[in-house]
Amino acid sequence: MTPARNRFALAAAALLLPLAWPAAAAAAPSPDPVVLSVGHVDAMQAYMNGDSLDLRVKDDTGASVRYHDPADVVLQVLPEAEYPIPAGDTWSFLGEAGDPMWMLPLTQDPGLLWPGWSSEPLARGQFQGDRLSMELVEVDGPGDVVLWSLSSFGQPTLYASTRDGLPDTISVNVPAHVHSYWAFTAEGAYTLTWSVSGTLADGTPVSTEAVDYHWHVGEMSDPDPDPDPDPGPPDESDLEGRLVLDEGHVDVLSLALEDGEFALNSKDDTRLHDPSAVIRDPDDVVFHATPESETILSDNFANPGYSEVGAPGDTRWFLPDVQEQGVLFAGWDTNGVPNGALEGDALDLTLTDYAGPGDLVMLTVDDFGDAAVEIDSEDALPQTIATRSRTHAHINWYFSEPGIYRLTWQATATTAAGDPIESEPRDYLFLVGEWPGTDPDPDPDPDPDPVLEHTQTITAEVDADAGGLVLSVDPDDRTVALPAMTLSPDATRWTTEGELRPVTVTDTRSADPGWNAVGQVSAFSSGDHEYAGSHLGWIPGLTSAGASQSVAPGPGVDGLLDGGPGLATSQLLASAPSGSGNGTAVLGADLILGLPTDVESGTYTALVTFTAI
What we know:
InterPro entries: Surface-anchored_actinobac. This is Surface-anchored protein. The protein is mainly beta. The protein is about 0% helix and about 50% strand. The strands form nine sheets. Strands 2, 6, 10, 13, 16, 17 and 18 form a seven-stranded mixed beta sheet that branches.
């Protein structure tokens, strides 16, 4: 389905003051985990992975949101979190008064991890009673673990505690975003095992597996700098547990500059597993060049440049630089690297290592049909694609043989200050051709392959009379001019509030599958100054809906200065469930913008992009 999109400008009025810009035994963690020790994280985020309920880690600690498999993360409680247990009966549930504990607070401390849990990827009405049950199944570690909150009158409300036995169950609203106090009574490594369950609106019970989360309290020793210097050729075992991306748009290499360091990941815009684009760890996905990518080389491949791919009549597996149905549209994206951060805005994407059953050639074609080879695996490595910051590009990929390939990429550049900068080398797994073990004459109703059970094969029949899904804004009413910003009463930020202009969603599809409308805002910029869209929050609302529609506004989203993710990532504006989406709904939202006190004067402008799917 092609999503309906629209966008309009949102401008903050000029600031008035010139200010200066600045179960079984616990599984071991990954041998090279992501360590999260400072900043906001939804440690347990529940989401639907196809038809299954699953858990992941939503990482808001950097400049952009990242999602991790819990097995690939260690959540660290820094030594600075140590406190004595307070005296008094009120706090006896934590242990003996005066004994040490390592506590992560309910509200954010900028020097510590701020973990919580959320069900925000799930929609209101998707689960019976809009409820889930989250269970702390087991804890393995050197001390006790206690989670609690405080009532309006400062009395503790216990969520879970190993001191009075497990399992403990926490009721979670859908959608919801929750934080608590976390206390650990000894330093060392812990494994907390969680599971989440609920009942879908149609009465189907769903539950996650028991998922291990790895914590470390106190200092961590340095990991083995080279735990597996020679991983060997990839095989079928490397495919296990990965999300399969086999059709649609994907930026295989997605580069961001976070806290002065390069972060090299992948940007999944296929919409196969999430309703919006998602930054993914390449260790969590496999890029599948399906059998539909198989092609016979034409006579053009006798020409210079093309001949490096193969000879006319040869078979290759081809991922093109233009989008085609049934195959991946694969490229790279460096929009996470701001202009001016690098010397000449130049950077290199380097293929440093390569393993697979055949060869890979990556080439571009100019406006006159001439080919330029960027990567040829037959030649010595490393090989480099020269690109720039704030760039989104695609290229033609040709694999010579079916099978499993591992491509190791690294990003390098020189900062504007003249210092070299490079990312960690990252491995990217490609499967070319048939999935291993595919039966050429399969059972008409086989058991699902555990690797493929969250993927879909889509067959579409177009009926021009069946209607469509259209999102629109009035072309004469597409600018939000927020009032002049004022200093907050506590003098901690500049703030302003306003209203989104009307956004109209019209659904005339006869199947009435329902829809989600989401919005995402670009950075606010004024001249050379820029602030991330995460500084903008909203409270969605519904202006009107059709008589047969059941439209629910999305949850409120706090901006960055209030501890929320803001609108720099896609956020739900409204949704309509299957069977209740036909008609016209007019959507709106209250907007809250907060900028730090050291912002430069100017008129700051951003674009909000809306998508309906």
